[in-house]
Design brief:
Layout: E1 2-5, H1 9-14, H2 16-28, E2 32-34, H3 44-48, H4 52-65, E3 72-74, H5 77-83, H6 86-89, H7 97-105, E4 107-109, H8 110-117, E5 130-134, H9 137-142, H10 147-154, E6 160-162, H11 177-180, H12 182-199, E7 203-206, H13 209-221, E8 227-230, H14 231-235
Parallel strand pairs: 1-2, 1-3, 3-4, 5-6, 5-7, 7-8
Helix pairs in contact: 12-13
């Protein structure tokens, strides 16, 4: 099965290892992965800030970049959620609406793709650590991916998976929200950090690096010894430490 990787801005700039783990995981599951180099930002930051005209330029570039892809997979529920909004944004535009629909229909967050398209709930990973999972807002509320990540994590061998208290709460990042509402965002991140502490987890895992960077930064400033890891790092781990 041929798959095109959409790397996302955050992963490309701050967490290139996530791209590596995503590719290795997909190849382990029998996929042939390519990387369309014309891809750019999905347009979400500009769109959410009200710059629709400017955002559409990036969106059109993404449509062109993945025009010939069979599937588009990204290690981010937030960015894929944005691609799924393209048909609404280009509604009535005779030149771009149909292509926007085509891109939205073939775009998947990585765990969603593994479970819903590949039909896998056990990827053969082993991770003998205590882990909790943060369900990011865009991934759960916009994209609607709630069960796939948890199913995959619970099937990881030797993992000690524990539910995160009040997991539905936002971490306080929210893109430009963290910049425009600094004090509220900080308070939300502190609350999320406290909930992670309550689990006594060694690792905080998530599907969106922006959230993990936000929570991880807060925990680091608080002096907490909890590592953050994108879910692909866990699912791509095949060696036991024993």
């Amino acid at each position: 099965m041929k798959v095109s990787l959409m790397i996302t801005c955050i992963c490309d700039t701050f967490a290139s290892n996530v791209g590596k783990d995503t590719v290795e995981l997909l190849e382990h599951l029998g996929c042939e992965v390519d990387f369309p180099q014309l891809q750019t930002c999905c347009g979400q930051p500009a769109f959410n800030s009200g710059y629709v005209k400017e955002a559409k330029k990036a969106m059109k570039q993404m449509i062109k970049a993945f025009r010939h892809s069979k599937y588009v997979v990204a290690p981010s529920g937030s960015c894929i959620g944005m691609l799924r909004e393209y048909p609404k944004i280009f509604k009535g535009d005779l030149k771009w609406e149909e292509e926007a629909k085509a891109l939205a229909a073939k775009s998947y967050e990585i765990t969603q793709f593994i479970v819903e398209v590949l039909g896998k709930e056990d990827v053969g990973a082993t991770f003998p650590k205590r882990v909790t999972y943060h369900p990011s807002c865009h991934m759960t509320r916009i994209l609607g991916v709630k069960e796939a990540p948890v199913k995959l994590l619970k099937n990881v061998k030797e993992i000690d998976f524990v539910e995160l208290p009040i997991k539905e709460d936002c971490c306080g990042f929210g893109g430009t929200f963290a910049v425009k509402n600094e004090f509220i965002s900080t308070a939300m991140a502190k609350e999320k950090s406290q909930h992670v502490t309550e689990t006594e987890a060694e690792y905080l895992v998530g599907g969106d690096m922006a959230c993990l960077m936000n929570i991880g930064g807060m925990m680091e400033r608080e002096g907490k010894n909890v590592k953050v890891a994108h879910i692909t790092e866990i699912l791509n781990h095949r060696e036991t430490s024993r």
